[in-house]
Every structure is written in C-alpha cells, then in structure tokens.
UniProtKB/TrEMBL annotation:
One of its GO terms (molecular function) is DNA-binding transcription factor activity. This is HTH tetR-type domain-containing protein. Residues 11-71 form the HTH tetR-type domain. InterPro entries: Homeodomain-like_sf, HTH-type_TetR-like_transc_reg, HTH_TetR. Keywords: DNA-binding, Transcription, Transcription regulation. The keyword Mitochondrion does not apply. Pfam families: TetR_N. Residues 34-53 bind DNA.
Length: 200
C-alpha cells in the first residue's frame, strides 16, 4: 500500500492530494484515475478526499489548474530573467521531459472522452497567443510551438517512444530555430518587452 503524504499533524493537504492524483495518472492513465485510487495513494479515506474534492471532475479540474498555474509561473520567471518567451517555453517543455514526464500528467486528461480539459485548452490558446504577440516577426514561431506541444502529447500518450538521445537532438534542433535572429532583430529593431502570461 502506498505510504501517503502526511504533514506533521497527520492530515493531508490539497497539494499532496494533487501530487497523488498526478502519480496515479502517470502510472495508470486516465482509466486508472479513480477517487479510490487517489485516496489509497494519499493514505486517506475516500471521505477525506471528498472533503477537498467533491467529485472526480473537481479533482481533474484541480490537476489541470495547478499545472497551468505552475507553467505560467515558471515561464514568467524565465522571461523575467531576460529570456525570450519562445525560448522560455521550449526550455520549460524540455525541463518537463527531463523530469520523467510526471509534471505533464495533467495532459493525459485530454485523452479522456468523458472529460473536457477546458483549463488546458484555454492555456494552449493563451500560450499560442503569447508566442504570436512576443514574436511577431519570428519565422518559425508556430512551427516551434506545435513541435514542442506535439512531442509533449506524443510522449504523454505513448504514441512514439524517443530515446533520451533522440529527445535531446529534437530540442537541440528546436533551440537552433529559436536562436535564429528574426528579421526585426537583423535590422536592429528588436521585439520590445516580453508580454507576460497569466492564468487570469
């Protein structure tokens, strides 16, 4: 039986429940994501889980929203250090892959016909909008965006299994496209301040 994630008072926090839900998603897929399985992994009763997440749908939404919030914060942190938005996006996707994909577990929800991943859909559209706003002259902006999202989904859904070496080669090629100067940069115009992404 899973050890459960307890704090010093013996209770389980919402974040720890979401951690357990992501672990279940990663190891068992959408069909294995049940309230019973999550409660068992977290080391709490089903009633204790329902106190925080009244239904499976609410739990799924919580998984999505936390993923979106975390990604927004990490990308914003990178752009705050002077990195371009597109470079920040690619770097963050690469980082997720290097963490064995567990941080991408939320995307498995997209494969479920019973669940409409509204938060993830809105996030994807917002990401693409930010790419277009921050890189209006970037020749490969859409190609890079759909390439990293495509690899992410392929990895999560086990469509094509790339070796670590192949994955590294993929990101190296994408980073090379991102690093290519845009027409505006070649003329010295620049692209101005990076427009931030938020979950609002």
């Amino acid at each position: 039986m899973a050890q459960g994630h307890h704090n010093r008072r013996g209770s389980v926090t919402i974040e720890q429940i979401l951690d357990s839900a992501e672990e279940v998603l990663f190891s068992k897929g959408v069909s294995g994501l049940t309230l019973e399985a999550v409660a068992r992994h977290a080391g709490i009763s089903k009633g204790g889980l329902l106190h925080h997440f009244p239904s499976k749908g609410v739990l799924e939404t919580g998984i999505e929203q936390r993923f979106v919030q975390t990604m927004c914060e990490r990308i914003s942190e990178r752009t705050g250090q002077g990195v371009s938005f597109l470079s920040a996006l690619v770097a963050e996707m690469k980082s997720c892959h290097e963490q064995d994909g567990r941080s991408l577990a939320a995307f498995t929800l997209c494969a479920s016909k019973e669940h409409s991943p509204a938060a993830l859909q809105a996030f994807g559209n917002k990401l693409l909008t930010c790419v277009e706003q921050n890189h209006p002259q970037e020749r490969y902006r859409s190609l890079v965006f759909f390439a990293v999202i495509g690899l992410l989904l392929s990895d999560v859904w086990h469509l094509v299994k790339l070796s670590d070496g192949e994955t590294q080669e993929f990101y190296a090629a994408v980073e090379e496209l991102v690093d290519e100067p845009s027409p505006a940069q070649r003329t010295g115009a620049g692209e101005g301040a990076v427009k931030a992404i938020s979950v609002a």
